[in-house]
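FAQ: What does the model actually see?

It sees only this:
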Amino acid sequence: MVLPDERPNTVERRQYFLDTAKRVFASSGFQSTTMEDIAREAGFTKPILYQHFTSKGTLYHEIVAATGATLINRMMEAVSAKVLPREKILAAFHVYFDMVVHDSDAFRILFMHEHDGETAAELREVEMNFVSFIVPYIDSGMDYEQRRLLAAGIVGMAEGSAIYWLIQQEHLGWPTPPEGEAETMAAHCATLAWGGLRALLRD
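And it is asked to produce this:
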């Protein structure tokens, strides 16, 4: 009896390889992962993987670029439905932490493994796009470079919270997050960020 092949067809393979590579990179890191590792995890031979991606770096680039693009697009959609700057910042944090909680592999790749050379540049690009997204929601009466500096601080706060949460999840063996986890983190960070901005404006 011949068992059905449940692996994806040719049209689906590219995304399947990306999803598989995301899991492997998240578990082992970019430097320690090989194309052989990814192909084996996907259930294909390495030559078939190379038909879709010319290198490990190409795979990594697409995963990080897709993560960054999805993050910004979802934030833009979320804040468009809000009016007040504080509501917009909260909505952006909701999107950010929802992705941290529900797409943890992508954020493990970004924040929990060493980066150098090209991979470090990929991470910086994601961070700078996030900074640029936040800038318009900081008081326009400030100097533009001041606003970027404050936006970078807000992004750093979000990243720090995300990294701490991911480390805790790893320590606990990656349990299913409790309901409302992303909303709670978003609310705390938004309150802290907004309170800091208001205090700065009063000064």
